[in-house]
């Protein structure tokens, strides 16, 4: 009777998390902890999901790993643990172990096994193992292969396997199934760009700009003080790049704005880029012409945990834009040199 009551309370709390009703979820967690104890596997699971919903990723990961360590029979505990760790970008070995536990779990249903394979494919891709990622995706049930989640991950893995035509086909189907997912539009646009469909790529990136605007945090207008500080930090970075790269950007004026504009994205700017080069990007027929450099304040503020993170993000953004605008594919992030 006690276990039945505990299960009902935890189920109520998990449903509340799914509905973004955190007050009900917190009340259920408190009640479940009193009844079953804080270290009960199901209580730990609920605690992890509540912490995750509140944005406390470190605590969420800790609770969910503890729950998974309890060797539960519920595959959802392992799946939530793996997904949380993957989204956190840390402890990927633990994430992989949790997902693989589902594949070994007696009684795991087809849907849970498919979810585990999707997670494992993403984890293996993060380790640049595209071959195993594709093998894992191949083993997913036929019904799941029509879902947007499968199609988008499959397309992303194919892009990383240098198979852009197949990637575009899969991502195009994903966009048709779920047209409101900006990430899928972003990957689809990248695939179209590689295939030389510039107009199609621009259209997808404009859609990313539109969809991302719904979820971006509101910030104050860019102050001149902040703009000057960011310009100063960016100029300091330029002192550390090789002369042959520096000469490409040294004379361009630097400005700061909140986020990319429609006009900039129409001209080829990355709608999620921290840095945008304004001008004419290099083509097969013409050299690049750089008119100005724009730093995107909102993206920086949304990504950093502290001011110390700004230089690294600016450098990553600079290298990405140098690659795109000047076609410096061999440029290395760590060394700032071209192969």
UniProtKB/TrEMBL annotation:
Highest classification ranks of the organism: Bacteria, Pseudomonadati, Myxococcota, Polyangia, Nannocystales
Record key words, sorted: Membrane, Repeat, TPR repeat, Transmembrane, Transmembrane helix
One Pfam family, short name: TPR_16
Superkingdom, natural source: Bacteria
Keyword Ribosomal protein: no
GO cellular component: cytoplasm; membrane
NAD listed as a keyword: no
UniProt feature coiled coil, ranges: none
Organism: Nannocystis pusilla
Listed name of the protein: Tetratricopeptide repeat protein
Subcellular location: Membrane
Matches recorded under SUPFAM superfamilies: TPR-like
